[in-house]
Design goal:
Radius of gyration: 24 Å
Strand content: under 5%
Shape: elongated
Order of helices and strands: HHHH
Length: about 90
């Protein structure tokens, strides 16, 4: 394995985790994960927690009428502003 010329401490790596996770990168191959059993275990724990959280609430698509109500509410919300600008 090639030695990382600028190895991260666990604190530095863990501070970057939210960004790494959010980016969708395959960070399991990150040099720090390869060399650090503590952070590798943390990553596995986070993966387990995320999988369990996905199972807690089923993903349900709201009915079309919900979107229609939201669209209508937004139109009604804009209407008073437009009336003020036109001097009504």
């Amino acid at each position: 394995m090639t030695q990382d010329p600028n190895p991260l401490t666990c604190e530095e790596f863990q501070a970057q985790l939210p960004e790494l996770i959010g980016s969708g990168e395959k960070f399991a191959m990150h040099p720090h994960i390869q060399d650090c059993p503590r952070c590798r275990a943390l990553l596995l724990d986070l993966k387990t927690i995320a999988e369990a959280a996905r199972e807690l609430l089923p993903i349900v698509e709201p009915p079309d009428e919900v979107w229609k109500h939201i669209e209508s509410a937004l139109r009604n919300e804009k209407a008073p502003d437009e009336a003020e600008r036109s001097g009504e």
